[in-house]
Amino acid sequence: LDDLLGQALAWQFPGAPEFGLPLTPARLGQVLRHVEAAAQAADGRTAVERDDRRLLQQIANPLLLGEMPHDGTHFVIGHHWQTHFTRCRAAEPGDLTVEKLRRWIDTPQKMGLTREAQNLVILCFASQTGQSFTLHGGAVEGKLSQLDDSWKLEQETPPDEADWLAAVPRAGRIFGVAVSPLCTAANAATLAKEVRQVATAHAAGAGTYARLLARRLDELGVPAETADRLQTAVATQA
């Protein structure tokens, strides 16, 4: 029976990869993390923890996202999907939508991927090419669990290199956020997202501190305009 089902699936999905394990959201998320790290690295490589190497071999390799050698320590991002989607877009110009990318994944042979696995391929492609998702002109965040067919991919503009070189160490010192120093739109988006998360988490505390300090200085008769600590607290809150 298993052999018969296998033959039927091979006929229906001739391009189906062999994974050898279920594609759970947690596993796909781990693969996405490593592929995005490689995409944001200058040499397209990222070191992989020993526990994750087998996972990348079983999922990233057959999905043609890149190569995790059996005896290697680094994952190397591939260019299969970037080349394939570019070729398909030349034949079908116009807005680059998620719906198109899903169809092109099954061109020329159906792969039979789950929607989440398709999302993984599309998210990796977007990260590698420095593109972001939009809906009606506004930015939307693509996730493994949410990637609507109507969303479009648009090319991002990388930041000014001088600003970027100043921002990366500053984000590390002030917010404890570390990102790749490579000046790309994807890295800028990652830095912005992580800085916002840290700032949001500490916003209430910063506001409370500024208010309490201002009240205590007033009680002590210290003019606000002469209190350097208060000026720093207000700037931090802002």
For this entry, give a set of tags.
mainly alpha, three-stranded antiparallel β-sheet, elongated
- What profile does the largest beta sheet have? 3 strands, antiparallel
Sketch the topology as an H/E string, one letter per element: HHEHEEHHHEEEHHH
How confident is the prediction overall: mean pLDDT? 90
> Spans with pLDDT under 50 lasting ≥5 residues?
none
Distance between the termini: 66 Å
Radius of gyration: 23 Å
Enumerate the strands of the largest sheet in spatial order, edge to edge or round the barrel.
1-3-2
Q: Estimate the strand proportion.
A: 5-15%
Which quaternary structure do these chains form? single chain
User: Which percent bin holds the helix content?
Assistant: 55-70%
Write structural notes for this entry.
The strands form 2 sheets. Strands 1-3-2 form a 3-stranded antiparallel sheet, with helices on one face. The chain has 9 helices and 6 strands, in the order H-H-E-H-E-E-H-H-H-E-E-E-H-H-H. The protein is mainly alpha-helical. The radius of gyration is 23 Å and the shape is elongated. Helix 8 (185-220) crosses helix 9. 55% of the residues lie in helices and 9% in strands. Strand 2 (66-67) and strand 3 form a beta hairpin.
